[in-house]
Amino acid sequence: MTDTHDDLPILRVATYNIHKGVQGLGPVRRLEIHNLGLAVEQMDADIICLQEVRKDNRKEESFFNNWPEQNQADFLTPLGYTAAYRTNATTRWGEHGNALLTRWPILESNHRDISDHRFEQRGLLHVAMEIAGRRIHTIVVHLGLVHGSRLRQTALIHEFIKAHVPDDEPVIVAGDFNDWGFQVKRMLAGFGLFEYDEQPLMTYPSRLPVVQLDHVYARGLTPCGLFVPRGRIWWRMSDHLPLIAEFRLRD
């Protein structure tokens, strides 16, 4: 737990699309996974939700001399944290998906395919943790590029929560929602999921962000803060900036 306020613990949750640990195109692309490892540790978050995390990629492994031997989820896990990973997409060269890193004990983790059409492989990662003596759920998502797909995937997230998360247990839904509007946000609010809403914080594209594609919503927790790290070191690592949210646990 990162801090306390009004005698109630504060839970810090980060979400970050890491762009598979590589930036740039073609022969000038560069490996950023080592810098991302340092960045993840600096977030000092209780829960870190990652998208576009590679389990393996034979093409990139042969291109970069310093490609890590571990899969990216394990490589990025700070000392004292535990990782959960599930594959969303299988390609000619390897696999990638969502990951969750946490300093709290993991009780269970599972995956649900929420692909809406054959051109995009999408999934959600569900992890239940014991946090300050309470069972808290986190769902890591990376929604589709098509507007209708995102709405249908949001409905599937709601169905998954109803089936797997008891009404009296807090749940966090975090990730890259790929949504340039507000319909997904309104749908989630209708399901009782809210984010810190004082002002939007732009996360994409990282060099000159104009839209907030990344969000952290919660039910059963009180949103109390939101932060986006900025600067050259951050926009060099991924096409997204990370988003760090804070929630107050309720009595």
What attributes characterize this protein structure?
hydrolase, Endonuclease/exonuclease/phosphatase family protein, 21% helix, seven-stranded mixed β-sheet, Endo/exonu/phosph_ase_sf, alpha+beta, 251 residues
Overview of the molecule:
GO terms for molecular function: endonuclease activity. It comes from Comamonas koreensis. InterPro entries: Endo/exonu/phosph_ase_sf (IPR036691), Endo/exonuclease/phosphatase (IPR005135), GPI-anchor_lipid_remodeler (IPR051916). Residues 14-240 form the Endonuclease/exonuclease/phosphatase domain. By secondary structure, the chain is α+β, with helices and mostly antiparallel strands. It is built from 6 helices and 14 strands. The strands form 3 sheets. Strands 1, 2, 5, 6, 7, 13 and 14 form a 7-stranded mixed β-sheet that branches. Helix 4 runs parallel beside helix 5. The radius of gyration is 17 Å and the shape is globular. The chain starts with a strand and ends with a strand. 39% of the residues are buried.
List the helices and strands and how they pair.
Layout: E1 3-5, E2 8-17, E3 22-23, E4 30-31, H1 33-43, E5 47-57, H2 58-63, H3 72-76, E6 82-90, E7 94-102, E8 106-113, E9 123-131, E10 134-142, H4 147-164, E11 171-176, H5 183-190, E12 214-219, E13 221-227, H6 232-235, E14 243-249
Parallel strand pairs: 2-5, 10-11
Antiparallel strand pairs: 1-2, 2-14, 3-4, 5-7, 6-7, 8-9, 9-10, 11-12, 13-14
Helix pairs in contact: 4-5
Distance N to C terminus: 16 Å
Q: Mean pLDDT score, rounded?
A: 95
Molecular shape: globular
Order of helices and strands: EEEEHEHHEEEEEHEHEEHE
Amount of beta strand:
35-45%
Q: Main beta sheet, described?
A: 7 strands, mixed
Query: Helicity range of the residues?
Result: 10-25%
Pfam family, one: Exo_endo_phos
Domain Endonuclease/exonuclease/phosphatase: 14-240
Organism: Comamonas koreensis
Protein name: Endonuclease/exonuclease/phosphatase family protein
